Structure prediction request, 331 residues.
Amino acid sequence: MAIKIGIPRALWFFDYYPLWKTFYEELGAEVILSDPTNKETLDLGVKNTVDEACLPVKIFHGHVLNLKDRVDVIFIPKVMSVYENEYICPKFCGLPEMVNHSIPGLPQIIDTEINFNRSRKSLKWTIYQFGRVITKNPIKIWNAYKKALEVYNQYREKIMDGNFPLDGEINEVLTQKNIKQKKNIKVALLGHSYNIFDSYGSMNLIQKLLDQHIEVIVPEMMDFEEINHNVGQLEKKMFWSFGRKILGTAMHIAEKNEVDGVIYLSSFGCGIDSIIEDLSERKTRKSAEIPYLLITVDEHTGEAGVNTRLEAFLDMIEWRKRDENNLSAHG
Ligand code: SF4
Prediction:
């Protein structure tokens, strides 16, 4: 019988899940995803995580609990770095240990370290470590990785073409809706992929915007080279990978001035956002002079409050487009 590998639908899932799913399926494992985030996942996560953790980490714990009793192995890699000379948030680095200490009785965890700051040779060794749970054959493991990379690149292309991987699934219906927006209003939604693409955690923000006929762009749709070029103009190197992506997008918006407003979706307690959000706001407000809305969510945030702020923000954009000659929308 095939080994059942559980992949939590949270954090790095939204960026890399097709890669790992394909990798393990190519090796003959059965991949089981946790259910999309819901109230139960959130409540379980909040109860079983240290209070100081940010919302996405709490949600991650809820997803691990969702998988705990129905898989043989849970996939929780120790993600240190996914680009050379850059780092991921420290909470990603300690995630396997944090989960293991908070949730007793877990099945085996795949907690191999991913660290692109090491040499290429050690990268091959890392891939082998991921695959050896299923087979000890290095050629089979390498071939599975190459196939997985192919599928991952196709996934990236789809997102760059304007598709939203909501809850991890490319949603063609939403893409069509995005393309056909009639109001001629375009909004950039900034933030970490796991905040933006988690329907429950984001309170369906993407869906809400599309329902209002707003065209939406997100950092994942940006060209990596352009992002790198933009952040390369900063005085100091941006060494957080998430920060580079979000800030690079904000700088693109500021330079091109092709969106009507910016929404930044952040999580309460996020150390990285405390800097990146502020820098993004300064860049977009200073150069593009467009309305900017910060939505910070935690487990207590009510949807009604978010809806009201969103409505006011969208009204402001509309008024500004319609009456800018008579009335300053900048206050
Ligand atoms: S980057 Fe922020 S939101 Fe993401 S895991 Fe780290 S602290 Fe949490």
